[in-house]
Amino acid sequence: MSRLVIVSNRIADPRKAAAGGLAVAVKDSLQETGGVWFGWSGKLRDAGNDATHRGDGVQVQTVGGIQLATIDLDPRDYDAYYLGYSNNVLWPVFHYRLDLAQFDRRFADGYRRVNQLFARKLYPLLRPDDIVWVHDYQLIPLAAELRAMGCTNPIGFFLHIPMPPLPIMAAIPEHEWLMRSLFAYDLVGFQTEADLLHFEQYVEAEAGAARLPNGRLRAFGRTLSAGAFPIGINVDEFAALAGDRDGIAMFDRMRDEYSRRQLLVGVDRLDYTKGLPQRVHAFRELLERYPENRSRATLIQIAAPSRENLGAYDDLRREMDSLCGAINGDYGELEWMPMRYIHRTVARKRLPGLYRASRVALVTPLRDGMNLVAKEFLAAQDETDPGVLVLSRFAGAAEQMKEALLVNPYDTQGTAQAIQRALAMPLDERRQRYTALMATIRKYDVHWWRTRFLDALADASEAAVAQP
After folding, report:
1. Has 160 been annotated as catalytic?
2. What is the CATH number of the domain that holds 257?
3. Can you give the residue range of the structural domain that contains 315?
4. Closest-CA residue to 339 (of 304, 302, 387)
5. What are phi and psi of 9, to 5 degrees?
6. I need a labelling partner for 396 at 20 to 30 A (CA). Which of 9, 49, 56, 404 fits?
7. Which residues have CB under 8 Å from 170's CB, separation 6+?
8. Which residues does residue 302 pair with via DSSP β-bridges, in sequence order?
9. Catalytic: which of 136, 268, 368, 445?
10. Considering 95, 135, 160, 281, which one is annotated as catalytic?
11. How many CB atoms lie within 10 A of CB 158?
Protein backbone atom coordinates (compact mmCIF):
# COMPACT_ATOMS: atom_id res chain seq x y z
CA MET A 1 0.00 0.00 0.00
CA SER A 2 1.35 3.43 -0.94
CA ARG A 3 2.36 5.72 1.90
CA LEU A 4 0.77 9.16 2.21
CA VAL A 5 3.23 12.01 2.69
CA ILE A 6 1.63 15.29 3.73
CA VAL A 7 3.58 18.53 3.46
CA SER A 8 2.45 21.78 5.05
CA ASN A 9 4.12 24.91 6.34
CA ARG A 10 3.56 23.88 9.96
CA ILE A 11 2.70 20.55 11.48
CA ALA A 12 0.60 19.80 14.55
CA ASP A 13 1.32 17.13 17.14
CA PRO A 14 -1.49 14.52 16.70
CA ARG A 15 -1.57 14.08 20.50
CA LYS A 16 -2.75 17.66 20.95
CA ALA A 17 -5.99 19.35 19.97
CA ALA A 18 -5.39 21.31 16.77
CA ALA A 19 -7.09 24.66 16.29
CA GLY A 20 -6.81 25.43 12.57
CA GLY A 21 -8.95 23.82 9.89
CA LEU A 22 -5.93 22.58 7.92
CA ALA A 23 -4.33 21.00 10.98
CA VAL A 24 -7.53 19.24 12.05
CA ALA A 25 -8.25 17.87 8.57
CA VAL A 26 -4.67 16.74 7.91
CA LYS A 27 -4.41 15.08 11.31
CA ASP A 28 -7.64 13.18 10.72
CA SER A 29 -6.43 12.05 7.28
CA LEU A 30 -3.10 10.73 8.57
CA GLN A 31 -4.65 9.01 11.57
CA GLU A 32 -6.81 7.04 9.14
CA THR A 33 -3.98 6.02 6.80
CA GLY A 34 -0.68 6.50 8.62
CA GLY A 35 2.24 8.09 6.82
CA VAL A 36 4.55 11.09 7.09
CA TRP A 37 3.81 14.72 7.92
CA PHE A 38 6.63 17.03 6.87
CA GLY A 39 6.94 20.74 7.61
CA TRP A 40 8.51 23.54 9.59
CA SER A 41 8.94 22.88 13.30
CA GLY A 42 7.96 26.43 14.25
CA LYS A 43 11.47 26.95 15.60
CA LEU A 44 14.22 29.25 14.35
CA ARG A 45 17.79 28.06 14.01
CA ASP A 46 20.72 29.65 15.78
CA ALA A 47 22.48 31.54 13.01
CA GLY A 48 25.77 31.06 14.89
CA ASN A 49 25.64 27.29 14.44
CA ASP A 50 27.02 26.52 10.98
CA ALA A 51 25.54 23.02 10.73
CA THR A 52 22.03 24.03 11.65
CA HIS A 53 22.38 27.25 9.66
CA ARG A 54 22.80 25.10 6.55
CA GLY A 55 19.64 23.24 7.51
CA ASP A 56 21.41 19.85 7.80
CA GLY A 57 18.98 18.49 10.39
CA VAL A 58 15.57 16.87 9.92
CA GLN A 59 13.97 15.99 13.24
CA VAL A 60 11.90 12.80 13.03
CA GLN A 61 9.57 11.27 15.61
CA THR A 62 6.74 8.75 15.40
CA VAL A 63 3.48 9.56 17.16
CA GLY A 64 0.47 7.27 16.95
CA GLY A 65 1.51 5.71 13.66
CA ILE A 66 2.33 9.08 12.09
CA GLN A 67 5.94 9.98 11.35
CA LEU A 68 6.52 13.68 12.01
CA ALA A 69 9.48 15.14 10.12
CA THR A 70 10.36 18.77 10.78
CA ILE A 71 13.04 21.29 9.93
CA ASP A 72 13.96 24.58 11.58
CA LEU A 73 14.20 27.85 9.65
CA ASP A 74 16.87 30.49 9.59
CA PRO A 75 15.59 33.80 11.04
CA ARG A 76 16.33 35.57 7.74
CA ASP A 77 14.35 32.98 5.79
CA TYR A 78 11.49 33.15 8.29
CA ASP A 79 11.27 36.91 7.86
CA ALA A 80 11.26 36.75 4.05
CA TYR A 81 9.35 33.52 3.40
CA TYR A 82 6.79 33.51 6.19
CA LEU A 83 6.30 37.06 7.44
CA GLY A 84 7.20 38.57 4.08
CA TYR A 85 5.94 36.69 1.06
CA SER A 86 3.41 34.32 2.63
CA ASN A 87 1.76 36.82 4.98
CA ASN A 88 2.41 40.17 3.34
CA VAL A 89 1.95 39.18 -0.30
CA LEU A 90 0.03 35.95 -0.85
CA TRP A 91 -2.35 36.14 2.12
CA PRO A 92 -3.68 39.66 1.44
CA VAL A 93 -3.79 39.26 -2.35
CA PHE A 94 -5.55 35.89 -2.26
CA HIS A 95 -8.07 37.47 0.11
CA TYR A 96 -8.62 40.40 -2.29
CA ARG A 97 -6.74 42.94 -0.13
CA LEU A 98 -4.27 44.51 -2.53
CA ASP A 99 -4.15 47.57 -0.29
CA LEU A 100 -2.36 45.53 2.39
CA ALA A 101 0.14 43.75 0.14
CA GLN A 102 3.84 44.61 0.34
CA PHE A 103 5.62 43.62 -2.86
CA ASP A 104 9.31 43.30 -2.09
CA ARG A 105 11.78 41.30 -4.20
CA ARG A 106 13.56 40.12 -1.05
CA PHE A 107 10.34 38.45 0.07
CA ALA A 108 10.05 36.55 -3.21
CA ASP A 109 13.68 35.43 -3.04
CA GLY A 110 13.17 34.10 0.48
CA TYR A 111 9.99 32.30 -0.57
CA ARG A 112 11.86 30.47 -3.36
CA ARG A 113 14.77 29.73 -1.06
CA VAL A 114 12.62 28.08 1.64
CA ASN A 115 10.66 26.04 -0.90
CA GLN A 116 14.00 24.80 -2.25
CA LEU A 117 15.03 23.94 1.32
CA PHE A 118 11.78 22.00 1.88
CA ALA A 119 12.41 20.06 -1.35
CA ARG A 120 16.02 19.25 -0.47
CA LYS A 121 15.05 17.93 2.95
CA LEU A 122 11.91 16.08 1.85
CA TYR A 123 13.25 14.35 -1.26
CA PRO A 124 15.61 11.92 0.54
CA LEU A 125 12.71 10.81 2.78
CA LEU A 126 10.48 9.79 -0.12
CA ARG A 127 9.96 6.22 -1.25
CA PRO A 128 9.25 5.43 -4.91
CA ASP A 129 5.57 4.60 -4.30
CA ASP A 130 4.79 7.48 -1.91
CA ILE A 131 1.88 9.79 -2.65
CA VAL A 132 2.73 13.40 -1.83
CA TRP A 133 0.01 15.84 -0.83
CA VAL A 134 1.14 19.47 -0.46
CA HIS A 135 -0.99 22.00 1.38
CA ASP A 136 -1.57 25.70 0.95
CA TYR A 137 -0.14 28.90 -0.35
CA GLN A 138 3.19 28.82 1.46
CA LEU A 139 4.33 25.88 -0.71
CA ILE A 140 3.06 26.60 -4.22
CA PRO A 141 6.48 26.03 -5.89
CA LEU A 142 7.38 22.88 -3.93
CA ALA A 143 6.45 20.37 -6.64
CA ALA A 144 8.51 22.24 -9.23
CA GLU A 145 11.53 22.05 -6.91
CA LEU A 146 10.96 18.33 -6.31
CA ARG A 147 10.55 17.65 -10.04
CA ALA A 148 13.85 19.46 -10.70
CA MET A 149 15.51 16.94 -8.37
CA GLY A 150 14.05 14.01 -10.32
CA CYS A 151 10.97 13.27 -8.21
CA THR A 152 8.40 11.29 -10.21
CA ASN A 153 5.95 10.57 -7.39
CA PRO A 154 2.32 11.60 -7.73
CA ILE A 155 2.08 15.07 -6.18
CA GLY A 156 -1.15 16.89 -5.42
CA PHE A 157 -1.70 20.40 -4.12
CA PHE A 158 -4.65 21.79 -2.15
CA LEU A 159 -5.24 25.51 -1.71
CA HIS A 160 -7.07 26.15 1.56
CA ILE A 161 -7.55 29.88 0.97
CA PRO A 162 -9.48 31.58 -1.86
CA MET A 163 -8.15 31.76 -5.41
CA PRO A 164 -8.52 35.37 -6.55
CA PRO A 165 -9.75 36.35 -10.01
CA LEU A 166 -7.26 37.22 -12.74
CA PRO A 167 -7.11 41.03 -12.30
CA ILE A 168 -6.21 40.62 -8.62
CA MET A 169 -3.85 37.67 -9.10
CA ALA A 170 -1.98 39.51 -11.84
CA ALA A 171 -1.02 42.27 -9.39
CA ILE A 172 1.60 39.94 -7.87
CA PRO A 173 4.87 40.61 -9.72
CA GLU A 174 5.66 36.86 -9.73
CA HIS A 175 2.17 35.73 -10.72
CA GLU A 176 3.26 33.96 -13.91
CA TRP A 177 5.96 32.01 -12.05
CA LEU A 178 3.49 31.00 -9.33
CA MET A 179 0.93 29.70 -11.81
CA ARG A 180 3.60 27.95 -13.88
CA SER A 181 4.79 26.25 -10.68
CA LEU A 182 1.33 24.80 -10.11
CA PHE A 183 1.65 22.86 -13.36
CA ALA A 184 4.36 20.71 -11.77
CA TYR A 185 1.58 19.08 -9.74
CA ASP A 186 -0.56 16.26 -11.06
CA LEU A 187 -3.68 17.62 -9.32
CA VAL A 188 -4.53 21.05 -7.95
CA GLY A 189 -7.54 21.26 -5.66
CA PHE A 190 -9.60 24.28 -4.60
CA GLN A 191 -12.27 24.83 -1.97
CA THR A 192 -15.06 25.99 -4.29
CA GLU A 193 -16.22 25.95 -7.87
CA ALA A 194 -15.71 29.73 -7.93
CA ASP A 195 -12.03 29.30 -6.99
CA LEU A 196 -11.61 26.66 -9.69
CA LEU A 197 -13.19 28.97 -12.24
CA HIS A 198 -10.79 31.79 -11.31
CA PHE A 199 -7.83 29.47 -11.85
CA GLU A 200 -9.12 28.23 -15.18
CA GLN A 201 -9.80 31.76 -16.38
CA TYR A 202 -6.30 32.83 -15.38
CA VAL A 203 -4.43 30.06 -17.21
CA GLU A 204 -6.63 30.41 -20.28
CA ALA A 205 -6.12 34.17 -20.52
CA GLU A 206 -2.50 34.42 -19.40
CA ALA A 207 -1.02 31.12 -20.62
CA GLY A 208 -3.33 30.11 -23.45
CA ALA A 209 -4.27 26.93 -21.59
CA ALA A 210 -6.19 24.30 -23.49
CA ARG A 211 -9.10 22.59 -21.76
CA LEU A 212 -8.95 18.80 -22.03
CA PRO A 213 -11.56 16.22 -20.96
CA ASN A 214 -12.10 15.34 -17.29
CA GLY A 215 -11.05 18.70 -15.83
CA ARG A 216 -7.56 18.65 -17.30
CA LEU A 217 -5.67 21.72 -18.46
CA ARG A 218 -2.64 21.97 -20.74
CA ALA A 219 -0.29 24.94 -20.34
CA PHE A 220 3.38 25.74 -19.81
CA GLY A 221 4.24 22.50 -21.62
CA ARG A 222 2.54 20.32 -18.99
CA THR A 223 -0.88 18.92 -18.21
CA LEU A 224 -2.59 18.91 -14.83
CA SER A 225 -5.98 18.07 -13.39
CA ALA A 226 -7.89 20.68 -11.38
CA GLY A 227 -11.05 20.38 -9.33
CA ALA A 228 -13.09 21.67 -6.39
CA PHE A 229 -12.85 19.61 -3.20
CA PRO A 230 -14.63 21.46 -0.37
CA ILE A 231 -13.00 20.51 2.91
CA GLY A 232 -15.16 19.02 5.64
CA ILE A 233 -14.95 18.14 9.31
CA ASN A 234 -15.09 14.92 11.28
CA VAL A 235 -18.74 15.37 12.20
CA ASP A 236 -19.06 12.49 14.65
CA GLU A 237 -15.82 13.38 16.43
CA PHE A 238 -16.84 17.00 16.93
CA ALA A 239 -20.39 16.08 17.96
CA ALA A 240 -18.92 13.68 20.53
CA LEU A 241 -16.89 16.54 22.01
CA ALA A 242 -20.17 18.24 22.91
CA GLY A 243 -21.00 15.23 25.09
CA ASP A 244 -17.58 15.01 26.74
CA ARG A 245 -16.87 16.41 30.19
CA ASP A 246 -15.41 19.71 28.98
CA GLY A 247 -18.17 20.25 26.45
CA ILE A 248 -20.91 19.55 28.98
CA ALA A 249 -19.23 21.75 31.59
CA MET A 250 -19.04 24.67 29.18
CA PHE A 251 -22.66 24.18 28.10
CA ASP A 252 -23.91 24.08 31.68
CA ARG A 253 -21.86 27.13 32.64
CA MET A 254 -23.17 29.17 29.72
CA ARG A 255 -26.77 28.13 30.31
CA ASP A 256 -26.55 28.96 34.00
CA GLU A 257 -24.89 32.32 33.43
CA TYR A 258 -27.11 33.34 30.52
CA SER A 259 -30.38 31.65 31.48
CA ARG A 260 -32.29 34.87 30.74
CA ARG A 261 -30.33 35.80 27.62
CA GLN A 262 -30.00 34.68 24.03
CA LEU A 263 -26.38 33.96 23.18
CA LEU A 264 -24.73 34.77 19.89
CA VAL A 265 -21.24 33.45 19.23
CA GLY A 266 -18.35 34.24 16.91
CA VAL A 267 -15.11 32.25 16.93
CA ASP A 268 -12.30 33.47 14.71
CA ARG A 269 -8.64 34.26 14.52
CA LEU A 270 -7.95 37.96 14.89
CA ASP A 271 -7.50 38.54 11.17
CA TYR A 272 -8.61 41.31 8.84
CA THR A 273 -10.24 38.73 6.55
CA LYS A 274 -12.77 37.69 9.21
CA GLY A 275 -14.92 40.81 9.13
CA LEU A 276 -14.81 41.34 12.89
CA PRO A 277 -15.32 45.14 12.96
CA GLN A 278 -18.17 44.79 10.46
CA ARG A 279 -19.73 42.14 12.73
CA VAL A 280 -19.59 44.43 15.76
CA HIS A 281 -21.14 47.25 13.72
CA ALA A 282 -23.96 44.89 12.68
CA PHE A 283 -24.56 43.86 16.29
CA ARG A 284 -24.69 47.53 17.31
CA GLU A 285 -27.21 48.10 14.51
CA LEU A 286 -29.26 45.18 15.86
CA LEU A 287 -29.46 46.79 19.30
CA GLU A 288 -30.32 50.18 17.80
CA ARG A 289 -32.98 49.02 15.31
CA TYR A 290 -34.46 46.21 17.43
CA PRO A 291 -34.36 47.49 21.03
CA GLU A 292 -36.15 44.38 22.32
CA ASN A 293 -32.72 42.71 22.18
CA ARG A 294 -31.28 45.06 24.78
CA SER A 295 -30.77 43.29 28.10
CA ARG A 296 -31.63 40.09 26.22
CA ALA A 297 -28.95 39.29 23.61
CA THR A 298 -25.25 38.84 24.31
CA LEU A 299 -22.55 38.34 21.70
CA ILE A 300 -19.51 36.31 22.80
CA GLN A 301 -16.74 37.05 20.33
CA ILE A 302 -13.57 34.98 20.58
CA ALA A 303 -10.71 36.39 18.52
CA ALA A 304 -7.65 34.21 18.94
CA PRO A 305 -4.26 35.93 18.53
CA SER A 306 -2.91 35.71 15.00
CA ARG A 307 0.27 37.06 13.34
CA GLU A 308 0.66 39.61 16.10
CA ASN A 309 4.01 40.84 14.80
CA LEU A 310 2.41 42.28 11.66
CA GLY A 311 1.26 45.89 11.66
CA ALA A 312 -2.18 45.30 10.14
CA TYR A 313 -3.05 43.01 13.05
CA ASP A 314 -1.99 45.54 15.66
CA ASP A 315 -4.33 48.04 14.02
CA LEU A 316 -7.16 45.50 14.01
CA ARG A 317 -6.70 44.68 17.66
CA ARG A 318 -6.87 48.35 18.64
CA GLU A 319 -9.99 48.80 16.50
CA MET A 320 -11.72 45.81 18.10
CA ASP A 321 -10.80 46.96 21.60
CA SER A 322 -12.32 50.35 20.81
CA LEU A 323 -15.50 49.04 19.13
CA CYS A 324 -16.28 46.48 21.82
CA GLY A 325 -15.62 48.96 24.60
CA ALA A 326 -17.86 51.52 22.90
CA ILE A 327 -20.80 49.15 22.45
CA ASN A 328 -20.63 48.06 26.08
CA GLY A 329 -20.29 51.65 27.23
CA ASP A 330 -23.23 52.86 25.13
CA TYR A 331 -25.66 49.98 25.68
CA GLY A 332 -24.46 48.06 28.75
CA GLU A 333 -26.23 48.04 32.06
CA LEU A 334 -25.20 46.98 35.54
CA GLU A 335 -26.73 43.53 35.08
CA TRP A 336 -25.99 43.09 31.33
CA MET A 337 -23.18 43.73 28.89
CA PRO A 338 -23.98 43.26 25.22
CA MET A 339 -20.52 41.97 24.27
CA ARG A 340 -17.92 39.69 25.74
CA TYR A 341 -14.78 40.06 23.69
CA ILE A 342 -12.06 37.47 24.34
CA HIS A 343 -8.66 37.97 22.73
CA ARG A 344 -7.11 34.61 23.46
CA THR A 345 -7.36 31.03 22.26
CA VAL A 346 -10.12 28.89 23.77
CA ALA A 347 -9.44 25.15 23.96
CA ARG A 348 -11.14 23.32 21.10
CA LYS A 349 -12.66 20.75 23.45
CA ARG A 350 -14.63 23.53 25.16
CA LEU A 351 -16.04 25.08 21.98
CA PRO A 352 -18.81 22.51 21.33
CA GLY A 353 -20.43 23.38 24.66
CA LEU A 354 -20.31 27.08 23.80
CA TYR A 355 -21.77 26.42 20.35
CA ARG A 356 -24.60 24.29 21.74
CA ALA A 357 -25.53 26.98 24.28
CA SER A 358 -25.74 29.65 21.56
CA ARG A 359 -28.89 30.50 19.64
CA VAL A 360 -26.98 32.10 16.74
CA ALA A 361 -23.51 31.70 15.25
CA LEU A 362 -22.08 34.65 13.33
CA VAL A 363 -19.64 33.42 10.67
CA THR A 364 -19.28 36.55 8.58
CA PRO A 365 -15.80 36.78 7.00
CA LEU A 366 -15.11 39.30 4.27
CA ARG A 367 -13.40 36.50 2.35
CA ASP A 368 -12.62 32.93 3.43
CA GLY A 369 -11.52 29.75 1.72
CA MET A 370 -14.07 27.59 3.55
CA ASN A 371 -14.49 28.35 7.30
CA LEU A 372 -14.99 25.19 9.32
CA VAL A 373 -16.47 27.04 12.31
CA ALA A 374 -19.72 27.11 10.36
CA LYS A 375 -19.71 23.32 10.15
CA GLU A 376 -18.51 22.75 13.70
CA PHE A 377 -21.31 24.96 15.07
CA LEU A 378 -23.89 22.75 13.39
CA ALA A 379 -22.24 19.50 14.48
CA ALA A 380 -22.44 20.63 18.11
CA GLN A 381 -26.17 21.48 18.07
CA ASP A 382 -29.01 19.73 19.86
CA GLU A 383 -31.18 18.48 16.99
CA THR A 384 -34.34 19.04 19.04
CA ASP A 385 -33.58 22.72 19.60
CA PRO A 386 -30.84 23.78 17.15
CA GLY A 387 -29.30 27.20 16.75
CA VAL A 388 -29.16 29.25 13.54
CA LEU A 389 -26.14 29.89 11.36
CA VAL A 390 -25.68 33.39 9.93
CA LEU A 391 -23.07 32.95 7.19
CA SER A 392 -21.23 35.33 4.91
CA ARG A 393 -21.84 34.77 1.23
CA PHE A 394 -18.09 35.35 0.79
CA ALA A 395 -17.11 32.28 2.83
CA GLY A 396 -16.38 29.18 0.80
CA ALA A 397 -18.85 27.33 3.01
CA ALA A 398 -21.70 29.38 1.52
CA GLU A 399 -21.42 27.45 -1.75
CA GLN A 400 -22.52 24.29 0.10
CA MET A 401 -24.62 25.66 2.95
CA LYS A 402 -27.51 27.38 1.21
CA GLU A 403 -29.90 26.80 4.12
CA ALA A 404 -27.94 29.12 6.39
CA LEU A 405 -28.96 32.76 6.54
CA LEU A 406 -26.56 34.17 3.95
CA VAL A 407 -25.47 37.78 4.40
CA ASN A 408 -23.23 40.40 2.86
CA PRO A 409 -20.96 41.42 5.77
CA TYR A 410 -20.40 44.83 4.18
CA ASP A 411 -24.15 45.50 4.48
CA THR A 412 -24.52 46.49 8.13
CA GLN A 413 -28.31 46.88 8.10
CA GLY A 414 -28.86 43.70 6.08
CA THR A 415 -26.70 41.69 8.47
CA ALA A 416 -28.54 43.13 11.48
CA GLN A 417 -31.86 42.14 9.89
CA ALA A 418 -30.58 38.60 9.36
CA ILE A 419 -29.45 38.37 12.98
CA GLN A 420 -32.87 39.54 14.13
CA ARG A 421 -34.50 36.93 11.91
CA ALA A 422 -32.24 34.24 13.39
CA LEU A 423 -33.08 35.26 16.96
CA ALA A 424 -36.81 35.21 16.23
CA MET A 425 -36.85 32.09 14.03
CA PRO A 426 -39.50 29.55 15.09
CA LEU A 427 -38.44 26.07 16.12
CA ASP A 428 -39.88 24.30 13.06
CA GLU A 429 -37.86 26.45 10.66
CA ARG A 430 -34.72 26.07 12.74
CA ARG A 431 -35.09 22.29 12.64
CA GLN A 432 -35.71 22.25 8.89
CA ARG A 433 -32.64 24.33 8.16
CA TYR A 434 -30.51 22.34 10.60
CA THR A 435 -31.56 19.00 9.11
CA ALA A 436 -30.71 20.08 5.58
CA LEU A 437 -27.37 21.57 6.61
CA MET A 438 -26.39 18.52 8.64
CA ALA A 439 -27.14 16.25 5.69
CA THR A 440 -24.68 18.29 3.63
CA ILE A 441 -21.84 18.37 6.14
CA ARG A 442 -22.24 14.66 6.85
CA LYS A 443 -22.12 13.80 3.16
CA TYR A 444 -19.13 16.03 2.48
CA ASP A 445 -17.14 15.36 5.65
CA VAL A 446 -13.37 15.15 6.09
CA HIS A 447 -13.34 11.49 5.07
CA TRP A 448 -15.10 12.31 1.79
CA TRP A 449 -12.66 15.17 1.20
CA ARG A 450 -9.59 13.00 1.69
CA THR A 451 -10.90 10.08 -0.35
CA ARG A 452 -12.19 12.25 -3.18
CA PHE A 453 -8.91 14.17 -3.47
CA LEU A 454 -6.63 11.14 -3.28
CA ASP A 455 -8.75 9.19 -5.78
CA ALA A 456 -8.58 12.15 -8.16
CA LEU A 457 -4.81 12.37 -7.62
CA ALA A 458 -4.42 8.68 -8.52
CA ASP A 459 -6.44 9.24 -11.70
CA ALA A 460 -4.45 12.36 -12.56
CA SER A 461 -1.13 10.61 -12.00
CA GLU A 462 -2.16 7.71 -14.25
CA ALA A 463 -3.27 10.15 -16.94
CA ALA A 464 0.05 11.99 -16.71
CA VAL A 465 1.98 8.74 -17.21
CA ALA A 466 -0.21 7.77 -20.17
CA GLN A 467 0.03 11.11 -21.96
CA PRO A 468 2.41 11.24 -24.94
Report:
1. yes
2. 3.40.50.2000
3. 235-442
4. 302
5. -55, -50
6. 9
7. 202, 206
8. 267, 342
9. 368
10. 160
11. 25
